[in-house]
Amino acid sequence: DAKTTQPTSMDCAEGRAANLPCNHSTISGNEYVYWYRQIHSQGPQYIIHGLKNNETNEMASLIITEDRKSSTLILPHATLRDTAVYYCIVRADLYNFNKFYFGSGTKLNVKP
Amino acid sequence: EAQVTQNPRYLITVTGKKLTVTCSQNMNHEYMSWYRQDPGLGLRQIYYSMNVEVTDKGDVPEGYKVSRKEKRNFPLILESPSPNQTSLYFCASSAPGLAGGRTEQYFGPGTRLTVT
Fold it and tell me: Distance between the two ends of chain B, CA-based, in angstroms?
């Protein structure tokens, strides 16, 4: 599975968009990009995933560059409750979750 | 409500005293996993199970056992706990996905274990 690189921490003002970057320069053609978040030692929570097209759901948007070497998770209107550690994971096998590597993630601090 | 439950949520024990952390899911998921989370090391997979009676080691299986006798339950057993197993433990479950389908893992609330 491809390795990912994320900034250690980021700040965002409440109500503004939070843009969290992730580099995955060694990604393979069959590898998906997943995003999870973990709020203060709770169990991680799925946010979104994608292969090469941009994706949007009720929580966030995922923008994947054309060469697929990087992606950005966008929280359109960050709230204080979005303060969490966000994990970018790249994984080939969509069907099996027997190996799922969480790196160090990005600590997002949403400030009033 | 779809959920993964773990018990106990907090446990303080002594070295060598066998313990079991239970995990149960109500979503009829085939896949279940155990992770531990330690500061600076992220989440690391201990064991996983792809179905009843099918289990395999993850990245850090030493000192742990698991069993999968029923689809909904996946207990984590520490036969002889040691202080280096002090950690935050998470159970997770997921279902096989269809092409492009949503196949996220659902995580339990965590069990904070302290071994003295």
Answer: 36
